[in-house]
């Protein structure tokens, strides 16, 4: 009898262990099926979304993501479509989700929106959501919605900024709103904390470009530039300066663009200022949107554009261009300039160095803003020889508010643009004729 009793006890213990294991496995299966249905719901729409949520909550009535998703679906309805008990239902769903997972920041953010929409206060829930998920994009987007309704623009912009860091796809949604803020002198101060040092916000350059390209007027762009100019942590960057100058030039505000560019020059750079900047090629090529030299040969063209010393060069520096016989319509050295109405003389020195070409290279000055057309051009340069002076006169009309001096390969046929050899230029200048 004792042996039988012992055997029964062992059997019962084994049964209990197996039963417990089965229960644990069943619970794990329930949780897995609920999680999977929730995941499918979050990637579905319409009836499929609702069906998957029903399945998830059937398997696990406390699945926090499913509870949150159902509450959010209720909150996304416009006011006129809300049933009398929808806000109460959303609140109950969110409270259940938070009870299961107290650190669930988005459920708290949605609870704040629910209380706000019901006419109550969601401030505490919003603050807690931010503390729990300070960089989570979905939480930050919902907090931005909350504070926009509360008309707390500074807080809303702070949450928008963080949401765009975490979710780059949302930037286009927020650009127009931030552009409106930048255009409003009374509101733009809320952007100061971001503009003071945009490095933590990788969307900033895209936003600046959006404003520079899309703003209907210059208020927003000028506002952003003013905020950035005031920064001591990170001064206005070349990318931003170029965008600003390009937009000013596009609007025909060449004088404003020129003055802004001049004000950004260093004391050393100001020494090279004239109607033509750095005509002796003493400074590195600017290669930007300002009023300095741009020298950008096409890739794999065999063309090299450099500054260097050669015999007869003034101040040990001159412009050198070399070609390798490929057909390239050359126009890749130029400078934007700003001349008022009047008569001017463009001059310089050239030294061709075995430059073989059917036609030659030629400097041209033309209008780039206001009226169009070529104002004047130099002689053609080719062959070989010592340094020689060249000049040509131009008359700038009042309607020509901006100009470009550019070096071209002359000719209308492709074969005319096959150049081989080199050429030097130095002592370029533009003088006003009295």
Automatic annotation (TrEMBL):
InterPro entries: TPR-like_helical_dom_sf. This is CBM-cenC domain-containing protein. It comes from Pseudohalioglobus sediminis.
């Amino acid at each position: 009898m004792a042996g039988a009793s012992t055997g029964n006890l062992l059997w019962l213990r084994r049964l209990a262990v197996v039963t417990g294991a089965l229960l644990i496995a069943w619970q794990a299966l329930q949780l897995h099926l609920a999680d999977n249905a929730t995941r499918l719901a979050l990637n579905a729409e319409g009836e499929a979304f609702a069906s998957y949520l029903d399945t998830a909550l059937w398997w696990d009535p406390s699945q926090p993501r499913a509870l949150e998703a159902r509450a959010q679906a209720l909150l996304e309805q416009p006011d006129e479509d809300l049933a009398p008990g929808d806000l109460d239902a959303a609140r109950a769903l969110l409270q259940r989700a938070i009870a299961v997972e107290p650190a669930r920041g988005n459920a708290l953010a949605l609870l704040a929106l629910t209380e706000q929409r019901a006419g109550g206060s969601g401030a505490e829930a919003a603050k807690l959501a931010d503390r729990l998920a300070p960089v989570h994009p979905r939480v930050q987007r919902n907090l931005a919605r909350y504070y926009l309704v509360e008309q707390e623009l500074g807080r809303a912009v702070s949450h928008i900024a963080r949401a765009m860091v975490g979710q780059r796809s949302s930037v286009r949604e927020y650009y127009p709103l931030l552009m409106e803020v930048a255009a409003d002198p009374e509101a733009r101060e809320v952007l100061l904390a971001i503009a003071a040092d945009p490095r933590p916000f990788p969307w900033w350059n895209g936003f600046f470009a959006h404003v520079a390209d899309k703003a209907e007027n210059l208020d927003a762009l000028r506002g952003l530039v003013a905020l950035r100019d005031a920064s001591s942590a990170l001064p206005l960057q070349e990318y931003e300066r170029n965008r600003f100058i390009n937009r000013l030039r596009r609007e025909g505000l060449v004088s404003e663009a020129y003055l802004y560019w001049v004000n950004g020059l260093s004391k050393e750079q100001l020494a090279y200022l004239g109607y033509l900047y750095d005509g002796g090629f003493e400074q590195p090529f600017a290669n930007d949107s300002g009023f300095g030299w741009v020298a950008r040969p096409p890739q794999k063209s065999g063309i090299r554009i450099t500054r260097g010393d050669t015999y007869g060069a003034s101040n040990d520096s001159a412009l050198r261009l070399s070609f390798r016989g490929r057909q390239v319509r050359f126009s890749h050295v130029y400078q934007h300039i700003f001349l008022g109405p009047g008569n001017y003389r463009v001059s310089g020195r050239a030294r061709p160095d075995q430059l073989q070409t059917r036609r030659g290279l030629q400097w041209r000055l033309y209008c780039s803003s206001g009226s169009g057309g070529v104002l004047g051009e130099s002689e053609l340069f080719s062959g070989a020889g010592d340094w020689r002076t060249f000049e040509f006169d131009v008359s700038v009309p009042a309607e020509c508010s901006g100009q470009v001096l550019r070096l071209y390969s002359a000719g209308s046929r492709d074969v005319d643009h096959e150049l081989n050899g080199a050429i030097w230029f130095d002592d370029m200048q533009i003088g006003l004729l009295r």
